[in-house]
Amino acid sequence: MSTLQPSQILFFSTLLSGTAITFSASSWFTAWIGLELNLLSFIPLLSFSKSNQYSSESSLKYFLIQALGSSLILASAPMTLYVQDITSVAITLALLLKMGAAPLHFWFPPVVQGITWPQCILISTIQKIAPMLLLLMVQSNMSSTILTYASITSAVVGAIGGLNQTLTRKILAYSSINHMSWMLAAITFNEQMWTIYFLAYALVSSSVMLIMHSHQIFHFNQLSSLNIYSKGLKLTLFLSLLSMGGMPPLTGFFPKWLIIQEFVFSSSFIWLSFLLGSALLTLFYYLRISISSMVFSSPKMKVSLFTSSQTVLVGVTLINFSPLLYPFMALFLY
Predict the structure, then answer these.
(1) Distance (Å, rounded) from C-alpha 127 to C-alpha 124?
(2) Segments forming the whole domain that contains residue 16
(3) Are the CB atoms for 8 and 45 separated by under 8 Å?
(4) What is the pTM of this model?
(5) How many domains are there within the chain?
(6) Per 3-state DSSP, what percentage of the chain is helix, strand, and coil (rounded to 5)?
(7) I want to staple 140 with a disulfide (CB 3.0 to 4.6 A). Which of 22, 88, 118, 270 is the partner?
(8) Does residue 295 lie within any of the structural domains?
């Protein structure tokens, strides 16, 4: 793994600063400034990698989509004084476009397919913080209805879209869209619920992407390369993917359990049924990846369970399957 250059550290710092400005803003104009700073910091980070011939194309697609969303927010925000409902709908749709939620998800899988795994981690986690928190500022009955339909659509699109994929980056892109449906549902309940789900999702998805990055796995056929490293690494990937699918008693199950409880208390059973059905489909293609890595033919191995070079990576990912995390994550509820 190459070392970070000073310019990359600078742009990453300003990216985090833009996100901080957005969710601490007291006006839409300040929030827009934070979004623009975040965008202008992320574009150079996307363009840095020359190992992928599609990185420039992904950078351009991402810039155009984010610029469209930002311009719509800037144009709609002053109208809140006159037409509250229509303006809230326009801002909600712009934020859904910026975060890649269905039905405005069309740009997200192609962009993820053209970037590296570290950039996938950024676009799937940090880049979704500011738009999601801005949704908390849009308060109207119409925006709540749009969030409900966007959550259901994201669940269906994320589940069905990943079924026929053989490229690992696209699979995790559709997985991100599916998890976004749960995060949109959490936003409608309270901010603490969203925080718990987002932290768990960021932890689990980052661990999976780090494994993929460490061995440069971009296609199903490359999963057989895991066999030449260690059985422990394959087991780590297997359990991390199950954690992403929300299989109990792994870490990824805890936030879904809390959201299911909120659905039951609010008697939103139809909405919940869509999310649970999509979760079963996503678990299917997680199992397809993990079982492929476990049963592909491989040479006879004479290595230890974990080699010394993999100790740090495995140590990070082992946090996915520790139920001991549950009491600590529950502290966010109080």
Answers:
(1) 7
(2) 6-333
(3) yes
(4) 0.86
(5) 1
(6) 80, 0, 20
(7) 88
(8) yes
